[in-house]
Write a structure and sequence with these properties.
CATH class: Mainly Alpha
Shape: globular
Radius of gyration: 24 Å
Main location: membrane
Pfam family, one: BPD_transp_1
Keywords: Cell inner membrane, Cell membrane, Membrane, Transmembrane, Transmembrane helix, Transport
Strand content: under 5%
Number of strands: 0
Largest sheet: none
Protein name: 2-aminoethylphosphonate transport system permease PhnU
Low-confidence stretches: 1-16, 279-284
Number of domains: 1
CATH superfamily: MetI-like
Mean pLDDT: 79
Family: Belongs to the binding-protein-dependent transport system permease family.
């Protein structure tokens, strides 16, 4: 038995020793990644450091970061992303709870219908809202649609499945024995929900919230299509500086700030997903 155990532990070690010899296989995808992503990103960084006189410096960064236009766009971007994330967490959690724990005919169909939203482009949601809430739509609430609240409602509608799907997966892993024991001890449904169900799903809900906020901060199609008055987000500001006024250095500075925000949120999302997977492994 000892010999078999040593052989079993030695085999993976031998395989790991052979892997470095095949490292050259990673070279083509790395080169493709550097060519299609790294090189354009370097160009954006260099362009953001180019002054009006053609020299390199931080004057463009200082002008952009110190402008009221940038601060207003950054504030509106963060506010819309936070509002959309909060709405998606509430709505997505509620829908996931209903589908997972309330037996009714058509639960799977409803889940699949919500999932189909993931396949739609975001501007399609804005177009549908135009037909419903637009000036010539069914409800004719044009003033509401072309406001920050209209954008917020459209983003919540579009991004709710990104919270609902991981919540459904987490609720599916909750042990029914725990809920039965809690109920047998006299715990009411609300207490079971707060103390048994939601703590188990908290990592999944947090990761879904981070992913939703990441996507909402970079949302462009909904904001552009609705054309809400006095609503300029960072992606819209990049579009305005780069395409409308052809001020490429300022556009690159704003784009780099948006990239930093996105990378920070993505890092948080990765940590939360790793934590959820480790918790699942520990429970198993």
């Amino acid at each position: 038995m000892t010999g078999l155990a040593l052989a079993a532990t030695a085999t993976p070690a031998r395989r790991r020793e052979k892997r470095p010899g095949r490292g050259w296989l990673l070279l083509p995808p790395v080169l493709v990644l550097l060519g299609f992503f790294g090189y354009p990103l370097v160009l954006v960084v260099l362009q953001s450091l180019e002054t009006k006189s053609g020299e390199f410096g931080l004057s463009v960064w200082l002008d952009v970061l110190g402008s009221a236009e940038f601060r207003d766009a950054a504030w509106k971007t963060v506010a819309l992303a936070l509002g959309a994330t909060a709405g998606c967490v509430v709505l997505g959690t509620f829908l996931a709870l209903v589908i997972a724990f309330v037996p009714f005919p058509g639960a799977r169909t409803l889940s699949r219908l919500v999932d189909t939203v993931l396949a739609f482009p975001s501007f399609l949601i804005a177009l549908a809202f135009t037909f419903i809430y637009g000036s010539a739509g069914i409800l004719g609430a044009g003033g509401f649609l072309y406001s920050p609240f209209g954008i917020l409602l459209a983003e919540i509608t579009f991004y709710t499945p990104f919270v609902m799907r991981p919540a459904l997966a987490a609720f599916g892993q909750v042990s029914s024995a725990q809920m039965e024991v809690a109920a047998s001890l006299g715990a009411k449904p609300g207490r079971v929900l707060r103390q048994v169900i939601l703590p188990e799903a908290l990592p999944s809900l947090a990761s879904g919230a981070c992913l939703t906020m990441l996507l909402a901060m970079n949302e462009f199609g909904i904001v552009l299509f609705l054309g809400a008055k006095d609503v300029t987000t960072l992606p819209m500001l990049v579009y305005g500086k780069g395409i409308v006024t052809f001020d490429f250095p300022q556009a690159c500075v704003i784009a780099m700030v948006n990239v930093v925000f996105s990378l920070a949120l993505y890092g948080t999302y990765r940590r939360l997903t790793k934590g959820g997977r480790r918790a699942a492994v520990d429970q198993a």
